[in-house]
Design a protein that fits this description.
Elements: H1 3-6, E1 13-23, E2 26-35, E3 39-44, E4 53-61, E5 68-84, E6 87-96, H2 99-112
Antiparallel strand pairs: 1-2, 1-4, 2-3, 3-6, 4-5, 5-6
Length: 116
């Protein structure tokens, strides 16, 4: 287990879904790369300021059939913004996440967890 993986407090699931975010740059769109009850990773074409608050919205879909399991709306904080290729990997930590949404993500992560 890598040192980075060891410090994660929540199981993380690989996940690709379109995402709408509202932050310092205004309304933007991105793709969720992975997800846990602690936060998510997205890709952007620009760097984001650490500590910035960003509102996110996306659907949680079943990997088996693409059915929407629920909609996630939450406030997040930028905890990482790293140059990678032509863009930036941005780590967002959930700041305000309703209990119902946390349970949905938790059950999704348990059901979808892979060997990574």
């Amino acid at each position: 287990m890598s040192a980075y993986h060891a410090k994660r407090s929540s199981p993380r699931a690989a996940f690709k879904e379109g995402l709408k975010l509202k932050g310092p740059q205004g309304l933007e769109y991105s793709t969720v790369e992975d997800l846990s009850t602690g936060g998510l990773k997205i890709w952007l074409d620009h760097e984001m300021t650490l500590g910035s608050l960003v509102e996110v919205e996306f659907n949680l879909r079943s990997k088996q059939n693409g059915q929407i399991l629920g909609a996630i709306q939450a406030i997040t904080r930028v905890v990482r913004s790293v140059k990678s290729g032509d863009g930036f990997q941005v780590g967002l930590q959930f700041v305000e996440l309703q209990h119902k949404m946390r349970e949905l993500i938790d059950s999704f992560s348990d059901a979808e967890d892979g060997p990574f």
